[in-house]
Amino acid sequence: MTASKKKAIVLGATGLVGLALVEKLQQAPEFEAITLVVRKESQVFNTYEKVNQLIIEDFLMLNDEDVNGYTHAFSCLGTTLKNAGSKQGFYAVDYEINAHLADLVQDKHIHLLLVSALGANANSPIFYNKVKGQLEDYIESLGIEKLSIFRPSLLIGKRSDVRLIEDLGQSLFKFIENKWQKPFKYKPVTAEQLAHTMVVAALTQIEAFKRYDNLSIQKTR
């Protein structure tokens, strides 16, 4: 691998943002290899020439050797309380697995890029925001060589699962989009916008740590 070439490992590749991110990474000439950590093989990903699938049923079994040799680690991994089935299940996915990835890259020359959420706050009375905030606080405490955290608002795109609140939000967004085109704090963003911002950050970020808020995601070109 030449010094200019990048290698990425991705968690959450089968989700809304993950799928968009894999497409962007596949198109980026700077990335020569992309490893997707998945629970089962996807035939869709077999059509991408730079993509390799690492099949691990339990992501907490990802180990130090699995993340060696990469320049970038992306996590788009997340769920909902409904899909997780309980607060404990949600915490196990959104906090524990992402924290595990951060632990693995802590002492390596790897740029970690994590999707969080607008409103993330460890002191929030809202469980979702509280867990996101706790995760951010923990990862920031590790002193990772380079870290990017993305805080999107509602994400727009076609999901494989049904999320009633987000589907209603998407319908509302489409209704007002033509009437309010200027960026504003809570304006929803597309999965493609977020994925694009992540790849731009991976290639251009100089700071050891940078948080990308929802306005930043809207404005990235």
TrEMBL record:
Name under which the protein is recorded: Semialdehyde dehydrogenase NAD-binding domain-containing protein
Semialdehyde dehydrogenase NAD-binding domain: residues covered: 8-81
Originating species: Acinetobacter calcoaceticus DSM 30006 = CIP 81.8
Record InterPro entries: NAD(P)-bd_dom_sf, Semialdehyde_DH_NAD-bd
Highest taxon in the source lineage: Bacteria
